[in-house]
């Protein structure tokens, strides 16, 4: 896992990383921002009705895989309030 905690994102800034039109696809989980850009299941910034560019902390708790997939994802920063 690549770790670059120097970058911080507000929720508004995170929305810019929606995976649409060639933009990177980022999501926040429990304050950590992950890059989903190269995850095939997230192509176009969408996955099972969820959209990149959002805080999915509550959503991932209900997913079959829960947080087990996070260890494979690059960390790009933190989400601020």
UniProtKB/TrEMBL annotation:
Domain of life: Bacteria
Start and end residues of each Cytochrome b5 heme-binding domain: 9-80
Identification of the protein by name: Cytochrome b5 heme-binding domain-containing protein
InterPro entries: Cyt_B5-like_heme/steroid-bd, Cyt_B5-like_heme/steroid_sf
């Amino acid at each position: 896992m690549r770790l670059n905690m120097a970058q911080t994102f507000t929720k508004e800034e995170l929305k810019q990383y929606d995976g649409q039109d060639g933009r990177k696809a980022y999501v926040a989980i429990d304050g950590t921002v992950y890059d989903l850009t190269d995850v095939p299941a997230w192509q176009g910034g969408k996955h099972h009705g969820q959209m990149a560019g959002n805080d999915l902390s509550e959503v991932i708790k209900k997913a079959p895989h829960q947080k087990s997939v996070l260890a494979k994802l690059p960390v790009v920063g933190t989400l601020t309030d």
